[in-house]
Amino acid sequence: MWIKRAILFLFLFLVFNTYSFASETINKIVAVVGDEFLTLYDLDEMCKPYFERFIKPELPLEEKEKVKNQIRKNFLKGWIEESILKIEAQKYGLTVSDEELKKVLTEEINSIGGEEVLKEYLKKQGISYEEYKEKVRDKILKFKFVQFQLKGKVVITEEELKKAYEETIKNYDPTPKYWLSILIISGDEKLASSIYEEILQGKSFEEVYKTYSTNIQLIKEEPFKRNELVSEILEKLKNISPGEVTPVIKKDEKYYIIRLLKIEEGVPPSFEEMKEKLYQKLFDLKAQAVLEKWINELEEKRYIKIYL
Length: 308
Known about the structure:
Layout: H1 2-26, E1 29-33, E2 36-39, H2 40-54, H3 61-91, H4 98-112, H5 115-125, H6 129-150, H7 158-170, E3 177-186, H8 189-200, H9 205-212, E4 216-225, H10 231-237, E5 249-251, E6 254-264, H11 271-300, E7 304-306
Antiparallel strand pairs: 1-2, 1-7, 3-4, 3-6, 5-6
């Protein structure tokens, strides 16, 4: 009898300790920022979509661990930066209003081709729409804090802007381009004709896409070189002006309705046209360098602790 009890005790001991060890492993704290902390479990949850994308089954075990650790380090760095900026922004009373968030969200939704396209993309990344909104809010808060904290510390001269412009136009492709928005309807001529009539009556491509998103695809404001367009489309584009739409074009069991936005003649934008974007790009680069230096100093003061 005592042998059975001893075996049962040993079994329970092993089960309990194995569970305890696993629990400790997944709940291991990998970083602390002020009063905020991040566990290995939470970090891996953040990384999960990227583990699935980049850790291929055929990779050797050692290579898989190497890739996994690199992804973890990249996400950990981002979490630390975001946590510090949120804490510091709160100290100075910086907030993001719902109106500010809505404005940026609208811009991002329009740039990707509509809310449904964005939600589908987020689904593939394993991110909910609410999580995405919070990430956008954090991004706005970070920008506000950087502008507030680094004002006067980051200076962009006219000479730097002109140099950046010269470097940019060196790589400018002189090939003429058509800027187009395209609706693609698969195999339904009646639906394509109906959509075309709605557009002629004043509906935007975005409104049409929201109505028929399960049946059509929207390509929004994309540049195409002449040799990237089939002859049927080029022929129709010759007969319309910027802002106008083509009639329905059939090609390989698909129907296309195209709005011509503009034609670039292969001349690079002027310095004045690019100046604002160049300024933002240079500011972001310099600001990031200052932020990283500041974060390193905080780490040395033990405000940041990393255990990974």
